[in-house]
Design brief:
The complex is a heterodimer of chains A (327) and B (337). By secondary structure, chain A is of the alpha/beta class. Chain A is built from 12 helices and 7 strands. In chain A, a hairpin with a 2-residue loop joins strand 4 and strand 5. In chain B, the strands form 3 sheets. Chain B has a 7-stranded mixed sheet with strand order 3-2-4-5-7-6-12, with helices on both faces. In chain B, strands 9-11-10-13-14 form a 5-stranded mixed sheet, sandwiched between helices. Chain B has a two-stranded antiparallel sheet with strand order 1-8. Classes of the chains: A alpha/beta (327), B alpha/beta (337).
Amino acid sequence: MQMNSEQLIAAYRGMCTIREFEERVHKEFATGQIPGFVHLYAGEEASAVGVCMQLGATDYIGSTHRGHGHAIAKGCDIGAMMKEIFGRQGGLCKGKGGSMHIADIGKGMLGANGIVGGGPPLACGAALAAKVKKTNSVAVAFFGDGAFNQGTTLEAMNFASVYKLPVFFVLEDNGYAESTASSWSIGGHNPVRRAEGFGIPGLRVDGHDFFAVYRAAKEAVDRMRAGGGPEFIHVEFTRYYGHFEGDQMTYRPPGEVQEERNFLDCLKFMRARLTSSGLVQASVLDQTEREVSALIERAVNDARAAAPPDPADLLTDVYKDYAGELA
Amino acid sequence: MSKKSFRAALNEAMRQEMERDPTVIALGEDIAGGMGAKGQQDAWGDVLGASKGLLGEFGRDRIFDTPISESAFIGAAAGAAVAGLRPIAQLMFVDFFGVCGDQIVNQMAKFRYMFGGKATTPVVIRTLFGAGLRAASQHSQCLYPVFTHIPGLKVVIPSSPYEAKGLMIQAIRDDDPVIFFEHKAMYDDVEEVPDEPYAIPLGQAKVVRAGGSATVVASGRMVKFALQAAEAAAKQDIACEVIDLRTTSPLDTRTILASVRKTGRLVAVDEASPRCGIAADVSALVAQEAFASLKAPIQLVCPPHTPVPFAPTLEDAYIPSPSRIEKAVRDTVKYGT
């Protein structure tokens, strides 16, 4: 696995963008400017970026309720995403979806998903389309440890297995399904073995280590493009915020998050690796961070300034065409 | 033009659209039959034989027998649709939607709206419905009111072989998710059906019998029963106007209201359960929009609020019959006299 300095900087930029985006959404949510439910991806950046760097524009991803990171890594527009989360005009989904439904089909982003386990069957469909149209595209199903116990996910794994569909099942295990520990809720306590039970090769990956995710994802996607059928990885890390914004996280031991931030931060690891190895100079990473900060600052300011959707838009986009009355 | 069964009409519609458009695929449990087995392939052609022969013509690259795994293949149909195919997924019996409801109700129905108009989801879910085959509580429900309730879905209920072919062709060509209800007791109904492809627009009800005494609104198999009731009523000099809704979403309110404004009487017939059903919905529409035209209380003809029973005597008592419809017609015409 060789990444050139351009790719390394792009990876760092992607992870920084997600982190900065999420930290800002956290702050803005606390001011009461963001309506609804928001689930933050901070702490998990290595997974979205490490996996999506293997994908092109014609590849698809299915995402989760914690979907901002996947959307950013798949190339969704940052400004339009922020407007969407604020529920404003110019939002990626015109303010009709919000944080939980950010999608951009044209970019291969099949949507964040408000239903735990909603995405894996959809990823199977995108992979089926690739197979029928012979495009050599692949699909990724990102899902959490909660979704790993949903029938939809298990059915999708079997479905992909019997048709040998190019679906990459990426289990993002952040330790908690809402408030319930994944160490308790996953029967058998061995996700890789569960995947292997479906005939899907699997690998456990340290989600704090971008390079570990990148390497595992690259090998899996390469095998899928060569016709090898579905793949699975179990990515372990933690989330820095609650299940949703406002979650007091009393189910977590005191100090757990701070310890993770201090000692297991994927961004700090990556920065240290890049600078200590001499692959990228610290000043370049500093510059990247400044650019990302400016980008997110602009996105927040633009979102705050954007007008709310016109109530007349309530009735549009329900159907492509409809002969009946909607109101 | 030739005589075709409901089953053959559906088969022809799917075959002609698959020939016309290479992005149309079909998937579902046993839609060919025999997948992975050592015996005959295309053994079933779906559980009642409507897709028989498609495997031979289009092969395993476009006809997908699936594991019994409705969440997976109904969801895959939705995902494949947004990725550029036009899948026809067969949910064998609509009763089984309970195991894949999320993929229909929360996923495919809402993509377009949630994603700000960026998603197009041209899926057809074919599904068997209705009582009459002694199939008991888990294989006999109608459930179309459930789907009619969901914005983003279109709901089609053909009433004859001719209707089945034209509505299926339109459903496949349609760019929104369509739930296509096939009454299992109508599969052997036969009538003249054009050989060439034709599409019936969704959202246009059909006046299948004109008359001035009372409006009878029905769908699916109940259209046939309503026509039998109208024939019997005609012998008593009662001229029923029978409307086949064809689709419950979109609902053709204009045709319903125009008829009731003419006749002043409504008999709303529905094979689905009475609470929150189509008969109730049509009645509310008429009460709100055509109250001044009504000369008599609206009559609803529905089954009781019970599961569908098994024993023939029980099931026969359950299903709205032509004679019950006829009695409702007589009651509304006699009202106040």
